């Protein structure tokens, strides 16, 4: 049985930076799972008695940390545990902006979903989260995107996610 510890501290070298450190002395995640931090769904995740982790989790946490002006770092050793470190930028209270930031702001997503109804739902949800969405019909030749979402396995790319209905 493991133990989880949360440490929060102000970074001594950068006054506007706050560091959250989570130490989990449980089984630890695999190095393959950590690859999902930058490439969601690249590798399978482990399961335990509570269920199986979603491969998108680390990527979404890192996106959130980036939106907060920081990043997520994960170090693990199987059977010894995992150390999660999140650095975020924290401005003094009077400098906070009132603009609401969304999870997928500044993320562009290519959505290639066959069903018009399903595509409309997916586009609406991604846009609610702040993503800029494009479809293959709208894409300009040199237009780049961060994430590719498709329901057609033959169209799947290395940076893509396979969407199953």
CATH hierarchy class name of the largest domain: Alpha Beta
- Secondary-structure element series: EEHEEHEEEHEEE
Q: How many E strands? A: 10
**Any guess at the CATH architecture of the largest domain?**
2-Layer Sandwich
Tell me the distance between the termini: 37 Å
Assign an overall shape. globular
CATH topology of the largest domain: Heat Shock Protein 90
The largest sheet is: 4 strands, antiparallel
Radius of gyration: 18 Å
Roughly what is the average pLDDT, rounded to an integer? 81
Low-confidence stretches: none
Keywords: Kinase, Transferase
EC number: 2.7.13.3
Pfam family, one: HATPase_c
Domain Histidine kinase/HSP90-like ATPase: 2-90
Describe the structure.
- This protein has 165 residues and is α/β, with parallel strands linked by helices.
- It folds into two domains: 4-95, Histidine kinase-like ATPase, C-terminal domain (Heat Shock Protein 90), CATH 3.30.565; 108-162, Phosphotransferase RcsD, RcsD-ABL domain (Rossmann fold), CATH 3.40.50.11620.
- The chain contains three helices and ten strands.
- The chain has helices spanning 31-34, 57-67, 116-128, and strands spanning 4-10, 17-24, 47-48, 51-52, 71-77, 81-89, 108-112, 132-134, 147-150, 160-162.
- The chain has a four-stranded antiparallel β-sheet. It has a four-stranded parallel β-sheet with strand order 8-7-9-10, covered by helices on one side.
- Strand 7, helix 3 and strand 8 form a beta-alpha-beta unit.
- The longest helix is centred in the C-terminal third of the chain and has 13 residues, at 116-128.
- It is globular, with a radius of gyration of 18 Å.
- The termini are far apart.
- The mean pLDDT is 81.
């Amino acid at each position: 049985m493991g133990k989880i510890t949360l440490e929060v501290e102000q970074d001594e070298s950068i006054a506007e930076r706050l560091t959250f450190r989570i130490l989990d002395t449980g089984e630890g995640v695999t190095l393959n799972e950590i690859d999902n931090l930058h490439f969601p769904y690249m590798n399978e995740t482990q399961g335990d008695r509570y269920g199986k982790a979603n491969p998108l989790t680390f990527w979404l946490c890192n996106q959130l940390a980036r939106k907060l002006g920081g990043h997520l770092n994960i170090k693990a050793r199987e059977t010894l545990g995992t150390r999660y470190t999140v650095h975020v930028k924290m401005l003094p209270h009077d400098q906070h902006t009132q603009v609401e930031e969304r999870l997928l702001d500044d993320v562009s997503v290519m959505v290639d979903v066959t069903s018009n109804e399903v595509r409309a739902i997916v586009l609406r949800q991604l846009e609610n989260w702040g993503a800029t969405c494009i479809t293959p019909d709208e894409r300009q030749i040199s237009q780049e995107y961060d994430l590719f979402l498709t329901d057609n396995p033959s169209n799947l790319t290395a940076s893509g996610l396979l969407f199953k209905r």
